Amino acid sequence: xxxxxxxxxxxxxxxxxxxxxxxxxxxxxxxxxxxxxxxxxxxxxxxxxxxxxxxxxxxxxxxxxxxxxxxxxxxxxxxxxxxxxxxxxxxxxxxxxxxxxxxxxxxxxxxxxxxxxxxxxxxxxxxxxxxxxxxxxxxxxxxxxxxxxxxxxxxxxxxxxxxxxxxxxxxxxxxxxxxxxxxxxxxxxxxxxxxxxxxxxxxxxxxxxxxxxxxxxxxxxxxxxxxxxxxxxxxxxxxxxxxxxxxxxxxxxxxxxxxxxxxxxxxxxxxxxxxxxxxxxxxxxxxxxxxxxxxxxxxxxxxxxxxxxxxxxxxxxxxxxxxxxxxxxxxxxxxxxxxxxxxxxxxxxxxxxxxxxxxxxxxxxxxxxxxxxxxxxxxxxxxxxxxxxxxxxxxxxxxxxxxxxxxxxxxxxxxxxxxxxxxxxxxxxxxxxxxxxxxxxxxxxxxxxxxxxxxxxxxxxxxxxxx
Amino acid sequence: xxxxxxxxxxxxxxxxxxxxxxxxxxxxxxxxxxxxxxxxxxxxxxxxxxxxxxxxxxxxxxxxxxxxxxxxxxxxxxxxxxxxxxxxxxxxxxxxxxxxxxxxxxxxxxxxxxxxxxxxxxxxxxxxxxxxxxxxxxxxxxxxxxxxxxxxxxxxxxxxxxxxxxxxxxxxxxxxxxxxxxxxxxxxxxxxxxxxxxxxxxxxxxxxxxxxxxxxxxxxxxxxxxxxxxxxxxxxxxxxxxxxxxxxxxxxxxxxxxxxxxxxxxxxxxxxxxxxxxxxxxxxxxxxxxxxxxxxxxxxxxxxxxxxxxxxxxxxxxxxxxxxxxxxxxxxxxxxxxxxxxxxxxxxxxxxxxxxxxxxxxxxxxxxxxxxxxxxxxxxxxxxxxxxxxxxxxxxxxxxxxxxxxxxxxxxxxxxxxxxxxxxxxxxxxxxxxxxxxxxxxxxxxxxxxxxxxxxxxxxxxxxxxxxxxxxxxxxxxxxxxxxxxxxxxxxxxxxxxxxxxxxxxxxxxxxxxxxxx
Lengths: 467, 518
Description:
The complex is a heterodimer of chains A (467) and B (518). Chain A is α/β, with parallel strands linked by helices. In chain A, a hairpin with a 6-residue loop joins strand 9 (308-313) and strand 10. Chain A has helices at residues 15-25, 55-66, 90-96, 99-102, 113-130, 142-157, 170-180, 205-211, 234-243, 298-301, 331-334, 347-384, 412-421, 451-465; strands at residues 76-77, 134-135, 161-165, 190-194, 216-223, 247-252, 270-274, 290-294, 308-313, 320-325, 390-391, 400-404, 424-425, 428-429, 440-444. By secondary structure, chain B is of the alpha/beta class. Chain B has a domain at 101-357: Type I PLP-dependent aspartate aminotransferase-like (Major domain) (Aspartate Aminotransferase, domain 2). Chain B has helices at residues 36-42, 66-78, 99-105, 108-111, 123-140, 152-169, 187-195, 213-219, 242-251, 272-275, 345-381, 407-413, 417-425, 455-474, 476-480, 506-517; strands at residues 144-149, 178-182, 199-203, 224-230, 255-259, 279-283, 301-305, 317-321, 324-328, 388-389, 404-405, 444-445. Chain B starts with 35 loop residues before the first helix and ends with a helix.
């Protein structure tokens, strides 16, 4: 098995080192160390993989392959739908790429102090945006945050249904359904969808009253909604939920929280959402991440599936450190009796996000929120001016809005294909998931889109939809 | 062999919590003012928000300049020992994260791409994802992989969801409501099975270090939905009856899932499918050299299965026709989504690059070296006073890690494994893995040598533990009060759990401080 040349990733790939180690343990061949594996378990043929590449060769191979992609830097992008193109300060990338925490493991609070502090600062700053005292370390996505929060509510209330607004990302809803389990399972949580008002995009409160009952564990809605609409009936929704003994869970995009009120202000019990807009690139979908937060009450704290990091005094007077909190209630502590399950999440993105929030400060969030509101409304208004095009919910939205092309005789697919030829990625096609909206697309406009970008889009849409 | 075992001194920056820093009016990020023409057309931003939804108070975030933020976090990164010293964290398979892979993954062809872009604009990425699928098929013998799960535990949840869909498709899900696992299989298997709605049966170990065949037979019935098991387990013990286990579970109509978390000890030696497993999971962020990312991801649990289970996989699947790659969403029997979009692409790319740099020989050698390293360390560790190996009846060499106990050391000196972990950091050695809960072996510890570290680093690790054992017998206080050279001292016990003091945010901390004073 010896190789003439050592591998750069493996210090002990030098044959002479292996010989020294084998001699120390009194074994002549490494194969003897595998005697636990029965012969009839062994593979019958060796691995057939492409020959190894050195770093220079690997670089060329990867670059030539990736060159087949077209990026949102080379093109003007209006896709959002759960993952959004925001400006990421260069300092966030510099911090998050540090090798020191790239593959650290838990260590001890004393030896891995810096990483623990960074995690605590993430939770602390997010807590200020949300006005909530209890914030867990991130979960894997917004959908998984919502799914876990619904299961928390089911345990808290000992009930078996959840009311969910229908204007929701179909991918997120699919994740939630997996968390709520199919009907065959004894612990199944029934998902009851609540209609939205076709004129405003807001939740239909009459339908909510009809859906909510004595088995409702939670009402879940989002603001802004998947269709971009700022839900303004939060207080009424929370009141209906509370009257029925249900928890109110609200999903939120935290980059909106410099201009939109925290869900706590209108009665949310548990708040979930995404961390991706907070200094994290899209990473082809690898940028997603979620959070769960609530009031700091045992009723909630003891149901979280997340890990918590708490500040604590050390044995030296006046010195503080950070350690895991309520670890024993997780699946690491209790296996199948723990709260749902805990495992790898997106904790590295907590470090990018804490850097982002610290750079933004209160004024940064107010400024970026205002810019997104104005530019998105500008784009919506200019698009509405075009023949055959209207914006379905023309006011009271944040960052995303529904553009309807029914009057153009063209499908969203055709329009997006034509826009692609003009180096523009049009909005996400909603035609299949929301047939009641007709030929519609979800357009995303953020602070990265200038007035010139918006006007370029409008000109291109005019051109490709011309009859 | 003479090994230098001098102590180190960690950086002590006394860095304040960021919430205490800053000065009103400082800025770390600026945005363009809204263009005048836009303002004229749409009006003021505040008027675009329904009155009931306007934020009335400014969030109490710190106000800092860009360099203040940057250097604060760089100082915190320096106060993270991690792999800067030696970190032999068993079950986590500490590997080098090749810098070329990091550099490529941070290029705009990866970072500035939206997963909902048309597939014509994603051809490079889809080619890499499909390439990784083919590599994992070759390593495992499975027929199809999917990368949607954001970690190993989530891949175990994929398996629980696929199990539900498979039995539901046969009308047997209500009847088959039990999943069998073992106490030394990672807790995420038991936990995800339970969260998916199954009853969990956990098999305990016999004196050989793995559950007996009889224990399995007693657990299997027509209610068995699946077996979820790791092999080797978290102690480096390989269950030689596994082929028979798979046969018995299959005969009863259950599925068999192989948690390949500990694949470093067996990669290139076995293929899970050849042993009979229907599905398996690889952790690309450990076995395949991608970063664990500060213990918590972003990560990827690559889930692979047989052709018979493939229709139930989360969608989409990357397919190829000639040289054109597609995302296949049209999968009517799919369980749907486990996580939004189709996976942590940067992690998949890094794992793919790692395999391409290693080749078949390199992968086989990595497995050889990690098992050699473990057994080499064992020789030194068992010579240390107060250290014993788990399951003394089981004489065979362990695979890539070994479970030890310090109970003797504790009995004789009062020094426990947690004291030793702390003291090791004074020498620049990150705390080693003890054991998952529950501790079957008292005062456990489980180093895993891996293939990255050289013989000198392994020698030093053993020598440090020997020195600490000497200290425990001669001057136990130095161990019990450790660390002495780290960024901070030990936390006061109990503070992080007591509801009067635990605080996961600065605002909770401030409130509880005030409450404690009144």
